[in-house]
Amino acid sequence: MDSVSQRVLEYLTEVEEGAEEVLTIKQQIVDLDSRRNRNREALNALKTEVSEDQEQLDKEINELRKGLKAKVNRLNEMQGKPELRGYSLSPLSTDEIKAINSLFKR
Fold first, then answer.
1. Are 38 and 45 a contacting pair, CB within 8 Å?
2. Could you give the count of Cα atoms lying within 13 Å of 28 in the half-sphere of its Cβ?
3. Which is more confidently placed, 62 or 9?
4. 65 lies in which domain range?
5. Distance of CA 6 to the CA centre of its chain
6. Residue 87 C-beta-side C-alpha neighbours within 13 Å
7. Which residues form a coiled coil (predicted)?
8. Whole-model pTM?
9. Per-residue confidence (pLDDT) for residue 88, from 0 to 100
10. I need a labelling partner for 23 at 20 to 30 A (CA). Which of 13, 32, 37, 74 fits?
């Protein structure tokens, strides 16, 4: 082979190696992007599930607290003690807190 043919062959080899490297990197990007999307989907599913669990736990706790108030009052009544005052108070709702805060901002 003469020198011109050798240079053309070297050039073509370099171009092919560069093209393979570019294709490899593009495939890695596609793979990593796919993995990132799966992770995002899993995190969102987990966040939703945890949120639903939290709401269920809140409901159960509130129901138990309501039942506890009645049982404590019944126990006090059986023992001849006066009903506890202030024990049946409930916390302000989010809307009530917002309304109060808006009054303070005026």
1. no
2. 6
3. 9
4. 3-105
5. 60
6. 14
7. 36-81
8. 0.51
9. 66
10. 37
As for how many domains the chain has, the answer is 1
* Confidence (pLDDT) at 70: 82
The tens digit of pLDDT for each residue in 49-84 reads 888 888 899 899 888 988 887 888 888 888 988 877
Tokens 């005052």 -> residue: 85
Q: How far apart are CA 10 and CA 16, in angstroms?
A: 10
Average pLDDT over residues 19-25: 95
Main-chain phi, psi angles of 43, to 5 degrees: -65, -40
DSSP assignment of the chain equals --HHHHHHHHHHHHHHHHHHHHHHHHHHHHHHHHHHHHHHHHHHHHHHHHHHHHHHHHHHHHHHHHHHHHHHHHHHHHHTPPPPSSTT--PPPHHHHHHHHHHHH-
